[in-house]
Amino acid sequence: MNFYNPENEIVPRNGNSLVVGIPGRISGCENQNEISLEDQVDHAKDVAYEMYDGEIEFRTITTTGKGERLDRPELQEIEKWLRSREFDLLIVEDLGRIVRGLEAHRLCGIAVDHGTRVLSVNDDIDTNQPDWEVRSVDACKEHMKHNEHTSRRIKFKKMNRFKKYGAATPCPIAGYIKPVGAKTFSDWSKDSGATHYIKGGLQVLRRTLNGAAVADYFNDVGFLPGPYCRKQKWDGTMVLSYFRNPILKGLPQRGKKHTTKLHEFGKRTSVVNPKGPTFREEPHLAFLSPDEIDPVLEAIAEKNAHFRRKKNQNGVDSRYQIPRKRTRAFGQHATCYYCGGHYVWGGNGITDNLMCSNSREWRCWNSVGFNGPKAAQKLLEVILESLSSLEEIDAQFQEIIRQIQSGGPENFLARENELNKVEEEIERESQHIKKLIRESADVKVDTSLLYEMMSELSERKKKLSQDRLALVHAQSRQLDLPESVLKLKEILLHHLDDVDIYSHEFGDLIRELVPEIYVYQVRLIDGGHLLPRAKIRLNLAGSISDATTFPKLQQLLSREMPLDLFEPPQRELIRPEVVRLATTGLEQREIARQLEGNPTQTAVWKSLQLHQKMLEQGLTNPYTLLDEPPDDYKKLRRHKNPKYSFQIKEGYQRPSL
Question: Which SUPFAM superfamilies does the UniProt entry name for this protein (predicted)?
């Protein structure tokens, strides 16, 4: 299609320069690279120059992501482009570069409604033509059809080869040898030295019905996990997964799971195949017979049945179609001050408690948990209290907003320089890790630690990519920032009023408003239980997307403070009033009768003793920070276990308190 038409002469709507938007996308597959994005942008620019001889202003969004995903932030940005009425043209190689599916057709409709002309070069679509809707729907259908046919073809091919030849083999697990170049299960062989350990592990499992007991046995005798396992030592979950693998019975499987599409987000997830897996008999790979292992697995399933997550009244799992990384407030967000591990729900077997994930793995002594809903309520009160004091910084806030709006490109250039420095640091660390991986073949290196380092580096790269995308978005449109602290307060109160502290939405909001939570332990100077306290960094600009581009604004709206995740012990709770009444000459029993809550005379005595110790030590605060587990606290014994080995998360540095 020739997009230039003398009858439809292009006239910039702003009267000066033609504003052209260019979305580009690659899926990020193995054979794709970033230069493909440059090719897409250059192609679109060539089309624009052929159509218009005057001044052209190009605005681009180039991303890496699956075309079916509807929750990509760039789609929201493209829609903002189209609704802004600033753009004259939107040029893409094909509609699938925006999104694969009818969502692309909807965006074309929005563009037409707001006066933006869309050109899809390879699809021969021009929204100035009367048949653009038919062409758009046909193009979307073809992109989806190609994707679906390719997926079906690959799945059938692999399953067919598995059935006929035992091909399409997975990575080998512990006890199996897969020679270089092996293509079928017939090429695999058993590690003869593993038979004794697997048989011994089964005996322990039959006797205890406990995967952790078998893990201890495997670790003690030196039977290592498979070569592709990230962990170098067994744990209970790994053991049970290992013995449930039917290849131990000489029955390798394929098709245990398959992918389904969540049409709301365009995401494909792996779920259990209702038709069940397909098995293939390979007797030479059998370590155990079905008569040996099946009764043990059935007994374990019966024993653990009541631990399964309960279903709701409709028979649906409460976590159905919810990503594992999406949890309520504090889950996988709060950080252990001592080791850097994140907190997870289900601390010490209590559903509403959280505890350090490293402590679960015997790598941190801090096994003291805290109640999540109560902590969320306390944090909400702190946020609301901070909002009430925003009026004090209104003048500073408005001055920063004025500087941002008048600063122009200089603001964005400074931010880009900061991101470039972060990128250089990440690249240096990446090269260092790659060097360690190359050396691990000759020198014994903890590969699980390398995987953990790579995972952390991947998260930092993802954060850098998000920051760069936010910067690009901010450069391409008018900034959306509240003009005063009153407007900011109104926005935040609206967000807080609409969510329940038990919901995942509240957890998402807390991650924006409180990006850092470090949990540590304190104790009264006269002893007693360990009490969890947190150091939090509150960022009231966290939920304003454009504010992340300007550190000065975030600095003004950020503050650090302690947050008690516990209720004070009775002797400390009543101490101020006890001391006041004691100065009037009242006896301890009389003091107890005048206090709320009906404390005993013993509680009053303990309170006075605590105050006396504070005076002797010259303290105004009765709590003391714990840097290590106290010897006199008998309930904290995790660090006494032979499996215990304290490990700080790679790259973690304790913050100052």
Answer: Resolvase-like
* Domains of the chain: total: 4
Within a domain: residue 135?
Answer: yes
For position 249, what pLDDT does the model report? 96
Check: CB of residue 334 under 8 Å from CB of residue 487: no
Question: Which pTM value belongs to this model?
Answer: 0.74
Is the same domain home to 300 and 415?
Answer: no
My answer on whether 135 and 177 are in the same domain is: no
171 in the same domain as 274: yes
Identify the three-state secondary structure at position 366: coil
State whether 534 and 616 are in the same domain. no
The first and second tokens of residue 55, run together, are: 């001044």
Final residue of a domain: which of 567, 582, 608? 567
Check: CB of residue 50 under 8 Å from CB of residue 56: no
**In-domain check, residue 337:** no
CA 96 to chain centre: 27
Residues 551 and 412 placed together within one structural domain of the fold: yes
Q: In 10 A of CB 526, how many CB atoms?
A: 16
Query: Is residue 252 in a domain?
Result: yes
**How many CA atoms does the CB half-sphere of 590 hold within 13 Å?**
9
The per-residue pLDDT for 651 is 77
Q: What is the pLDDT of residue 184?
A: 95
| Coil, helix or strand at residue 356 | strand
Q: What is the pLDDT of residue 334?
A: 95
Domain span holding position 587:
570-635
In this predicted structure, what is the pLDDT of residue 475? 56
What is the spatial order of strands in the sheet that 353-356 belongs to? 343-345, 353-356, 370-371
Dihedral through CA 425, CA 427, CA 428, CA 433, nearest 10? 130
**Model pLDDT, residue 471:** 66
The CATH number covering residue 232 comes to 3.90.1750.20
Same domain, 482 and 523: yes
What pLDDT is recorded for position 490?
Answer: 84
Beta bridge partners of 126: 119
- Is the CB of residue 299 less than 8 Å from the CB of residue 209? yes
Q: How many CB atoms lie within 10 A of CB 41?
A: 18
CA distance 651 to 518: 16
Tokens standing for 138? 């046909």
Closest CA to 567 of 533, 598, 536, 544: 533
Same domain, 80 and 173: no
| Domain annotation covers residue 173 | yes
175 & 67 share domain: no
State which residues of the chain have pLDDT below 70: 1-8, 29-35, 403-415, 436-452, 455, 466, 469-480, 545-546, 548-549
Q: What is the CA radius of gyration of the chain?
A: 31
Supply the pLDDT for residue 155: 92
